[in-house]
Amino acid sequence: xxxxxxxxxxxxxxxxxxIYDVIVSFPEIAQPGQFIHVLCGGDTxxxxxxxxxxxxxxxxxxxxQVRGKGTKLLSQYKEGDELDxxxxxxxxxxxxxxxxxxxVVVGGGIGIFPLLKLSKALGxxxxxxxxxxxxxxxxxKDEFDSCCDLCHIATDxxxxxxxxxxxxxxxxxxxNNNVTSIYSCGPVPMMKGVKQIAEKYNIYxxxxxxxxxxxxIGACAVCTCQSHGxxxxxxxxxxxxxxxxxxx
Length: 248
Ligand SMILES: Cc1cc2nc3c(=O)[nH]c(=O)nc-3n(C[C@H](O)[C@H](O)[C@H](O)COP(=O)(O)OP(=O)(O)OC[C@H]3O[C@@H](n4cnc5c(N)ncnc54)[C@H](O)[C@@H]3O)c2cc1C
Fold this sequence. Notes:
By secondary structure, the chain is of the alpha/beta class. It has a domain of 86 residues: Translation factors (Elongation Factor Tu (Ef-tu), domain 3, Beta Barrel), CATH 2.40.30.10. It is 20% helix and 35% strand. The chain is built from 6 helices and 16 strands. It is globular, with a radius of gyration of 17 Å. The chain starts with a strand and ends in a 6-residue tail after the last strand. Bound molecules: flavin-adenine dinucleotide. Flavin-adenine dinucleotide binds next to strand 4, strand 6 and helix 1.
C-alpha cells in the first residue's frame, strides 16, 4: 500500500488566469506519465489526480487548472504550506518502442502538462504539438521549445500558430518526418483523432487518460475505461495505455 507524503510547497506560479504551476518537496522518484493524488483540504474527502509535470532529486512539479471545488481549494495554498500527496501512482509512458525516428508528443489543454517530463526523456529529436483554445491560454511554450527539436502550436481561433486541431498538425508532421512514436494526452475526441492517425500510418502510439477519478488506488470503479470490450481502471492499468488497447 502506497504511503502519502507531507510535502512543502516550494514555489507557486500563476502563468495565466486559473492555471497554477507548483513545485513541492517530494521524496520519491517519479516516471513521466505517472500522477499524484492530492488532498485539497476543506470538506473534500477525495483526493484529486494531477499529472507529474516534472521532477528531480527531492522535488516534484505539477500544473493544474482550477475546475471545481477541489482545485479551487488547492489554489488557496501558499508557498511554505504543506500538502498531503499520495504517489507517484499509475503506469507512466513506455519508451522501449519509440524507435529510431522522431518521437512526437501531442497535448491539448491540461493534457500538455504530463508531456514536458516525457519530452525531456525522449530526447532532442522530439517534436511537440500543443493545442490551446486561444493565444492568451498558451503556457510552457518556452520550455517545450528548449527540450524539443520543434514545438508546434495550434489554437482553436487561430490567434497563434496553426488555426485548428492538433491532429491536423500531427498529420503534416507525420507526412514530413520519419515519425516512429506518438504520445498524447488531452480530451478524448482529440486522442481518438491521434489514435486514428497512428493507425493510418502504422506508428506506435500511447495515450494518457485523464478520467474522472475517485480513490486513485483501484478500490472504486469511478475511473474505468474500455479496453478490448472490458472495463479497466485507469488508476491501476493506466493512466497511460497503448492506443491499440483502448476502445475510444
Ligand atoms: C491521471 C490524471 C491526471 C490529471 N492531470 C491533470 C493535470 O496535470 N492538470 C490538471 O489541471 N488536471 C489534471 N487532471 C484533471 C483533474 O484531476 C481534475 O480537473 C480535478 O480532479 C478537478 O477537481 P475539482 O474538485 O476542481 O473539480 P470537480 O468537478 O468539483 O470534482 C472532480 C473530482 O471530484 C471527485 N468526484 C466528483 N464527483 C464524483 C463522483 N460522482 N464520483 C467519484 N468522484 C467524484 C473526483 O475526485 C473528481 O476527480 C488529471 C486527471 C487524471 C485522472
